[in-house]
Amino acid sequence: MLNLLPTLESSSNIVVYASDETGISVESDNHYSWSPVGHPPILEKNARHEGVNIIGSTAILNGYHIVNDIYPSSKSITTKEVKAHIQHLLDINEGKKVVIFLDNARFHKSLEMQKFYYDNRDILEVIFLPKYSPYMNPQEQIWHYVKAKLYKPSARECKYELTYDINLILGDLNLNKDKIRSLADGRKYLL
């Protein structure tokens, strides 16, 4: 990796992404809270189990930006959604080679995806992270940041409100390249 990093950084014809999927519920996770002594915190739960599944990719070396696709939680992320997401990355980076770091999810390594990788080998390089190593994926830090920003003590009314809030947070992040760099700079992960 050390020999590869300067080449990736210095090339204006290569875009490097870290990619991952996550699910977010309309109900906030209670990571921490406070209340007066003797009065436990009240967190609203609606028990609807609604939410969204997200595929996200963050450019981690140059031109820091986030690209995401959001689906209702009733729709599982499959090969079809991942393939469409990667195709979108190729489309927005026309004329450039796209390098993507992925985990070892089954739908990343399906026969259909292997054929897709092979068919696009001139413009797409896929690097699989070691198994069970989310700490090596910069996209995990983006998800952590988004989920922390989404926290509130009451449940959201619906998945559309949640989707709006997620898009707002990711939109603000895309306007703040330094924040993306601080969260997901590839140099922290690729060395």
Automatic annotation (TrEMBL):
Residues 16-152 form the Tc1-like transposase DDE domain. It comes from Clostridium saccharobutylicum. InterPro entries: RNaseH_sf, Tc1-like_DDE_dom. Signal peptide: none annotated. This is Tc1-like transposase DDE domain-containing protein. Pfam families: DDE_3 (PF13358). GO terms for molecular function: nucleic acid binding.
